[in-house]
Amino acid sequence: VEKAVTPTIKPDKILKELANLWIETAAPSENGQSSGVLRACSMTMVVIADETEDTQNISETLAQLMKEHPSRAIVIRLRNCIEPCLESRVFAQCWKPFGSRQHICCEQIEITASDSSLPDVPAVVLPLVVADLPVILWCRSGRVTELEGFRELESLAQKVIFDSASFHDSEKALSRLLTASLPGTRVADLAWGRLTRSRELIAQAVNSEDALAGLRRVDTMRIHARGPKPDVPARYFAAWLSNRLALVGALPKLEWDFTPMDVPTSLRGVALSGPDGFTLSAEVKQSVNNGVAVDLSVNGRVNGVVLLRPTEYELLLQELSIPGRDLIFEAALRRAATV
Amino acid sequence: MPLDNPFQDPLRFERKLPECAVVIFGANGDLTKRKLLPALYRLAHERRLPPGIAILGISRTPMSDDQFREKMRESVDQFKEDGEVDPAIWDAFACGLFYMAGDVGDPKCYSDLAARLKGIETARHTSGNVLFYLSTQPSQYGPVARGLGVAGLSKGSGWRRVVIEKPFGHDLASARALSDEVHEYFDEHEVYRIDHYLGKETVQNILAFRFGNGIFEPLWDRRYIDNIQITGAESIGVEGRGAYYQEAGALRDMIQNHLLQVMATVAMEPSSTFSPNAVRDERAKLLRSIRIMKPEDVKDNVVAGQYGPARIGGQELPGFRQEKGVAPDAQTDTYVATTFFVDNWRWAGVPFYIRSGKHMPKRVSEIAIQFKDAPHQVFNGTGDSGNGHHAMPNLLILRIQPEEGISLKFVSKRPGAGMTLRPVSMDFNYGSSFGERSPSAYETLLLDAIIGDPTLYTRQDMVEASWTVVEPILEYWATIKHDFPNYPAGSWGPKASDDMLARHGHEWRKP
């Protein structure tokens, strides 16, 4: 339901447009029947992305998320140009749950700004956030984190979701994530979420008394990654394994095994071994539709599994389902920066 | 001591269900068709079941696996709560559906079952894990448990659990006898007594509401709460179950299990953790604190009712005694209202009114918590009713069904000149606030049983405590003859029920 296009950005005007939007959306139809609209909101979701990114994709992901995490979405699209520009529009995303008479609607505000106008945006966003509800900032571009005005935007949020894959340099990405982890702000990285299924596979592989006992004596950890040097996912994985093995008293030596850069997946495999013959390995064999085929081996017993690549929606759902701190990720992030 | 897996990440990893076989006794019955299979299909649809799960139905009717699958498909089509059945998901799900005909009173049934389970374990890799679901006549619970035990099926290479539907006995002695029979072959931690009310999202939400927020618990006691009303009303009659219901009645069918469990959830002390036994310990403690009535208390604090014929919306409705299978002089309570008191520091003197009935004006389950009036009436005489805002006490309504949610009623100044007060309602609606669908109670409970989480299941000490509460009522009723019918179908119950509250200066809320 699209309402209007405003030539300039005035938060009061946007709020008024939003109020009108709800009145219009809920107005009775011609036959006098009320359309029965319920307004749902559990947070403010601020999305910042380059204008060149596929807007359709962002909208679809937000629409999917609305069902589990209804929000006021504020999408900031950054135009990489010198001329200042700032414009906005408001609209509502509605759906009708099966069997319900009422539509459930969430509001969306889209702000288009040039890079040079970004410093003006936080002051616009501040009055638009829904009172008393969490503010989540989803930053889709590594580039924008270096722009003036981004820090102010970041400070409005309780949780900032980055994607380190959108940074050109892994050192820079990790250092940016670490500096964003200020007191009161939680940081998340979609690249960490992409590793969840691989981590789960390793956890399931050692779900027996024998394997758990073997873990205590692991003395070598070999990570097979795309390189000349490890990227963020490989560092996360190494850091996570080291942290978790330390919990059972194992302090293995870390060895890297690099593969040329032309392979599609950055983390190619992992192998843990101990002096008493315990071995656990997971190795990517080939790419398959929407994922990779992996050979998982525990003490020589091999199983083939397929790990599907999660969609952006699934990754965000994972992050939004964690309202508090994620201590396992935070520890992995700190350690990854030193790997 | 088992080692903890250091790689686990409960925040992010999905709760993995173990591969297992679910054996449903009474697979041709109503519960299987209306609730169990639709819930299992829904879980499969949401990819929450392990891929190798096997569901083996048992009943007397001869049927092939394929005929059973076809029959279950029809049931799922008919009783699934939302959306269409996805043919691809159904096909994968149906591969795990099996059936065997058997008489649960015949030992051969169990040797056949053992052989069938062995085959299923090989084909579906269920690791010897079996969940036995007793969806049979209650009189068969004991014999089935014994049959399983004698055939060696209560123990195996994997875990074994048995789910029992209510009623757990028809009085305290029979509940204990049933428990003894089942415990002969299954340990208490393997027995899952299902009370589907506890699986409802809103009932679970009572705990979140009370113990996840800081503002309500300080008001949650005798100093601020005047009375609590718990209603479980059904708009339908016995719907062909007259013969069964005649033996049960509302007190046994609803109060002894569902509504006393709800009361325990509303009134229990906070548990130190959310572990299954910590929560159940507190519920059990509350049930044991309910004052046991003497015969003279029953007269004043319990009202039995039975619906008579009525005409609603042009349709003639039969009275209970005119229902099929019901004796013309049946003394069955189709309605019951009770006043319970909890003898502990928190609730001393606060009446808990609980009512349940068939053929009420609407289907509604809710808890209404009525707060005490403000100590001084500044606005006396300025309410809408013209006699002060006493007409509208502060009420907190926890709605269990049909519209799950929470409402807070308070008075507000009416816009305009003067200080006229009007009751208003602040509503939280579960569906619209989250948008996503709430799982049905059976989905939640089946999943919990498979994963081995008994938090929402009733423990034997809780069953015994609630029978101890209702048994004096049953004993007193056995000595008198009720003057039934005493309320017309489609009404809110007998007048005596209103009188019971009036004696305490209260009145029933009309939901």
Structural features, described:
- The complex is a heterodimer of chains A (339) and B (511).
- With 339 residues, chain A is of the alpha/beta class.
- In chain A, 33% of the residues lie in helices and 32% in strands.
- Chain A has helices at residues 11-26, 55-68, 121-128, 150-155, 170-180, 190-194, 196-205, 209-215, 232-247, 312-320, 327-336, and strands at residues 2-6, 37-39, 43-50, 71-79, 86-95, 103-114, 135-139, 159-162, 186-189, 220-226, 253-259, 267-273, 279-288, 291-298, 301-308.
- In chain A, strands 1, 2, 3, 4, 5, 6, 7, 8 and 9 form a 9-stranded mixed sheet that branches.
- In chain A, helix 1 packs across helix 3, helix 2 crosses helix 10 and helix 9 (232-247) crosses helix 11.
- The longest helix of chain A is centred in the first third of the chain and has 16 residues, at 11-26.
- The radius of gyration of chain A is 23 Å and the shape is elongated.
- The model of chain A is unreliable at 1-7 (pLDDT under 50).
- Chain B has 511 residues and is of the alpha/beta class.
- Chain B has 15 helices and 18 strands.
- Chain B has helices at residues 30-45, 65-79, 87-94, 107-124, 141-150, 172-183, 196-199, 201-211, 242-267, 276-289, 295-301, 430-434, 441-451, 460-477, 495-502; strands at residues 21-25, 54-59, 97-101, 130-134, 160-165, 191-194, 225-233, 302-305, 307-308, 310-312, 315-317, 335-340, 352-357, 364-371, 395-401, 405-413, 421-429, 487-488.
- In chain B, strand 15 (395-401) and strand 16 (405-413) form a beta hairpin.
- In chain B, helix 1 crosses helix 2 and helix 1 packs across helix 13.
- The radius of gyration of chain B is 24 Å and the shape is globular.
- In chain B, 43% of the residues are buried.
- Residues 384-390 of chain B have low confidence and may be disordered.
- At the A-B interface, helix 2, helix 7, helix 8 and helix 9 of A face helix 12 of B.
